[in-house]
Amino acid sequence: MLDVIACIAIDHNPVLVVLAAAICVLGAWISFRLFQRARDTRGATRAGWLFLTGMAAGSSIWCTHFVAMLAYQTQAAVYFDPTLTILSLFLAIAGTAAGFGLAISGWFRLAPEAGGAVIGLAIAGMHYLGMAGYHVDGLISWNQNYVVASVIGSVLFGMLALNRSMRPVTIWCRYGAKTAFIVGIVVMHFTGMTALDVTPLRPVLTPATDQLWALALSVAGVGTMVIGMGVVTALIDHRTRALADADLLRIAEYDPLTDLGNRSLFSRELEDGCIWADANDARLCLVLVDLDDFQAINDLRGHTAGDAFLQALGARILKGLQPGEAAMRTGGDEFALIKRLDGNDDLQPFLDRLDGLFRSPVRASGTVLSCSAGIGVALYPEHGLSVSDLLANAGMALARAKLDTLERTQFCDSIMDQAERRRRELSLSLRGAVERNEFTLFFQPQMDLETGGFSGAEALLRWIHPQHGAVSPAVFVPIAEENGQIIPIGDWVLQQACRQAASWSQPIKIAVNISAVQLRQRNLAGRIAEILKETGLDPARLEVEVTESSFMADLDLSLAVLRQIQNLGVSIALDDFGAGYSALASLRVYPFDRIKLDRGFTSDLATSEEARAIVHSVLMLGQSLGTPVLAEGVETDEQLVFLQAAGCRTIQGFLFSRPVPASDLLKLMLAGPAPAAGTLARTRQALLAGPAPAGVQALPQATGTFGG
User: pLDDT (tens digit, 9 = 90+) per residue, 615-627?
Assistant: First the structure.
């Protein structure tokens, strides 16, 4: 054991060891999730899931092995046999798929353990076949004791992993199965590497980088394959849920799984209850329940376990109901209960019973599963004078209950629910807002620091609500993206912006923001082409702005749409650069025509040394890539001085102009360069005559490819 630890600590690169461990953990998680789905299916469907399981498990084992091999440090020249390397991958995939298939075959009592042994042998076979293709310029010797120990360890841990997965005793066994699988891979590899002894014939100090890069690219490709398995899983699960929802719609009055009423019966019971309350001068209590983490049961134990859980819970609810009470299953993990309250009936005993019904562990499929839920309560007529109002107020109470980790039962509260109610009102008002002419466009000029004049303008959407007045885009745009209204709204913005730009006397660019939802439209480029033709605007004068989060939401589709738009002659700008998770990666995946530096960096220029360093680096990056950079949010002379000294050519912000209506923008154009232009000219002269501001290296003036 000490020799194995010493081998890991001394003979391996720790960074690559950590990377190999990460691949191993991710692969184990994906593999057992897919294996669980294979257990819950039959026939050809099971074969498909087993294929995916073998691909995920074999690929992750292979990746772990070869990244860890790259981590092994030796002074001898290293070569890899490509044929044996590829064969080791196929062996890992086929062997693990066969092992998982044997484990769930049910052919004999010890099938799970036998399947685990097959997986352990597949791991060992993959390792030593791969090592057979590991050639060094030296003498190789093997310690047979460690070789035997590595194989035995791999087999034993493989058997343990499948035993804990197929024969769980507690809820923690699923973690034990994954842990044993990971330990088996690690023990196999590093014990096997401890068995290896290399004596270099001609020690070298520099590794064969070409071969290492080739192997690294191969490993990266296999890693992509593993991720693809997860994508396939999501698609299949989505299809399964869609079919389940379609089946529920065909059910008339009762849910066949739980024997509770369904949504149709719920609507009728709620209406009848309100009528009864009015006729008897009584009250009606509506309770909405949403289970916590029910999807986790389906994911980790399969849909069969999830169905069994719901069946047991439904039986418990039916048994716990009393006269004057009704319970319905209104969704996958959503329930509704109705109680008729005579006179001064106390509601608390009813709520206490609900706490026991929905928050006590449930015994299903021979095991005990935890159960918890958020509960929203509303009373008729106190919390709503109609069925729709009562249901809406109970829903808002439930929404608060799901967010509150302490008070999981929430009553309707008009003050606390006001924000949610306003959000829902705005969602409804957005439908038809374009037709009612409630939107208008403002324009914020963009300034060229070389000339002191306009270089373009950004179109900014404003909404004047008939009741609420001006509504911030930060409020209504996310709502429009949720309810789909961003499509007609975005189309209107493009039309109006292009029409306004075509009427301007100066041939400057107009910039229009495109949301993530719009980017998922396959016909977006065609629609832009129609608008350009309709308005007569030169495509070179239109700039489409996208944020990193918008095109990363569906990268392949977004990149295809952006290329189609760019082929029209329209330029593409990366907006809010630096505010995303991996802004530099965005520049690598797509050749943007312009970078818009996020205003958060600009606003901190006067106080933050880090912000100045980042802004300066981004400007230099833009020069290196030949991509112009526009700085947003410029509001002070100090910010302007720094940006111009750093080589920034184009700015946008309150220092030059706030967003203005189209008529005011036209006046600014007719008046010529803005008053700030003189200030800019004087600033420029001072910069050329004196030293650069702190944090800025002496740079040549922005020309050539940087000026674009």
Answer: 988 999 888 889 9
Q: Residue range 249-264: average pLDDT?
A: 80
Q: 445 and 326, same structural domain? A: no
In Å, how far from its chain's centre is CA 284? 41
Classified as helix, coil or strand, 364 is strand
Domain with 315, as residue range(s), is 263-412
Cis peptide before 381 (omega within 30 of 0): yes
DSSP state of 691: P
Query: CB 479: neighbour CB atoms within 10 A?
Result: 18
The larger pLDDT score, comparing residue 493 to residue 59, is at 493
Last residue of a domain, one of 166, 194, 224: 224
Length of the chain: 708
pTM: 0.49
CA nearest 158: which of 32, 288, 272, 63?
Answer: 32
Model confidence pLDDT, tens digit, residues 188-240: 888 888 877 777 666 655 555 555 655 656 675 666 676 666 667 757 766 77
Asked if 324 contacts 340 with a C-beta cutoff of 8 angstroms, the reply is yes
Q: Give the position of tokens 């090592």.
A: 131
Structure tokens at 678: 């003189």
- The tokens for 26 are 């991710």
Number of domains in the chain: 3
DSSP state of 181: H
Half-sphere exposure of 217 (CA within 13 A, CB side): 6
Quick: pLDDT tens for 156-175.
Answer: 999 999 988 888 878 788 88
Burial class (CB in 10 A: 0-12, 13-18, 19+), 692: middle
